[in-house]
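We store chain and fold; thus.
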Amino acid sequence: MDKRGKQSKGGYQLKTDSEGRTSFEGVPYGKLRVQVLAHGFQTFGEDYEINQPTTAITIKLKRPQGQYSVYDSPATEKKKEEENKPPQK
């Protein structure tokens, strides 16, 4: 990010290992914007201040929340809940 808080052009893309970890050497000091996109989770984005040689950042992703509409009736909501229940044994 630049001094005005704007995201600079360019950037890096990192992939995680099977445990969800990644590392990156050579991160410049200053503000760093981290964005995480993962299928089945809410997009995460936050700015961090990098001011030491090693910085650990832990991110916990959230599942998407249910969406509601003023156009859905209580009967429609109940039907949706029944459709999403796991099958009974």
User: Anything to note?
Assistant: The longest strand covers residues 30-36. The mean pLDDT is 83.
